[in-house]
């Protein structure tokens, strides 16, 4: 499960925030299922300082409605619409095919 | 509103040996030298630079510039709004003149970026994104690449079609003596340039440049009126946005600017928009209400956005070929629109424009700042 937040205004987000970034109201702590769909992705070849290329990134639309930017391991090829599972490894979320 | 542009000036955007202070002084002097009368003596100075402290170690830019221009007794400020610093500084100047407190106001924006290597500048620009995104290795190109994939998926835009934008940018930059790149490029050049973050290649990205631009804002009537201003914003995190394929901040900014100017998108004759990456020329035109979502590429293919088209987009060459010294960009866009509206755009002159629009973005669609200018 992925910790996040829900607002009365309808916004669902990861990570948890006390105040809704959309409307400023107090948010409720919730957990989202760790499955979802790939909304978009990229592989970055020009790595920033401190990182090594290639870097895989995906934006996953979680089943609960929140979106999550996560890492993708290099041997995984994603397409928009793929069903994926999100797992935490150390400080980061990674996604892979279900 | 009764606010006018008295004059504009700009250095060439390029890899320069000049200091940031010298570049900004040059632009300021160029602008002031085109003006006769009261507007030549500014009562305040607003400076725009995104991050001189970290990029070149320069600090205290407003005071340094005021002193260097012999304006050491006037109020001097620096405005920062990421790469939208330039237009934000211009808007600040408008507010000063509107209030009657300072009139006229000199606005000078500049940035000197070529001294830093690409990786370091990339890391610095990535600070415009939240820590959590950066911890994945995200850079600005990576975010825009994801937007590109999403846009291509949604509107069936092909990689070949996307390549038309940098080619068009360079065709126009070749007509601009102040542009960073004044050489045309081909589709092959674009498609063979190294992949930065798929699907974006090197030639889809605006260069790192040095340069400065300046504008004088006044209540004294001139040939060009500042008719409308707008500022829109959005969440810091890409994953908190309502859409992944466009910038609602731009639409919000444009809405305010059109309303203030009492105009609508159909009235715009020429536009300078923030094409830091090729896809953004398409996304921006749609977010500004100039074309339907997904249709900007058709307008480009029909020639509508070329110099002799119904709505020339980025006649200066845009950020892609004119260059993008971030603190200068928003002001340089207004300079171009001013020159277009006053018939001073040389080989890139658009035929008889009356309404021009400049659109500047800070961060990844975080702050969008729109200015509408009218020939009077």
- What structural category arises from helix and sheet content of chain B? alpha/beta
Helix content class of chain A: under 10%
Alpha-carbon distance between the termini of chain B? 12 Å
CATH topology of the domain at 4-117 and 209-218 in chain B: Peroxisomal Thiolase, Chain A, domain 1
Record field, number of beta strands of chain A: 8
Name of the CATH architecture of the domain at 4-117 and 209-218 in chain B? 3-Layer(aba) Sandwich
In angstroms, what is the radius of gyration of chain B? 19 Å
Largest interface: A-B, 31 and 36 residues
**Class derived from helix and strand content of chain A:** mainly beta
The number of E-state strands of chain B comes to: 11
Amount of beta strand of chain B: 15-25%
Count of separate DSSP helical elements of chain B? 14
Quote the average pLDDT of chain A. Answer: 95
Largest sheet of chain B: 5 strands, mixed
Oligomer: heterodimer
Descriptive key words:
heterodimer; A: mainly beta; 2 domains; 3-stranded antiparallel sheet; globular; B: 376 residues; alpha/beta; Peroxisomal Thiolase, Chain A, domain 1
Summarize the structure.
Chain A is mostly beta strands and 98 residues long.
Detailed description of the structure:
The complex is a heterodimer of chains A (98) and B (376). In chain A, a hairpin with a 4-residue loop joins strand 5 and strand 6. Chain A starts with a strand and ends with a strand. Chain A is mainly β. In chain A, 0% of the residues lie in helices and 50% in strands. Chain B is of the alpha/beta class. In chain B, strand 5 and strand 6 form a beta hairpin. Chain B is globular. The model of chain B has no long low-confidence stretch (mean pLDDT 97). The interface between A and B is medium-sized, with 31 and 36 residues.
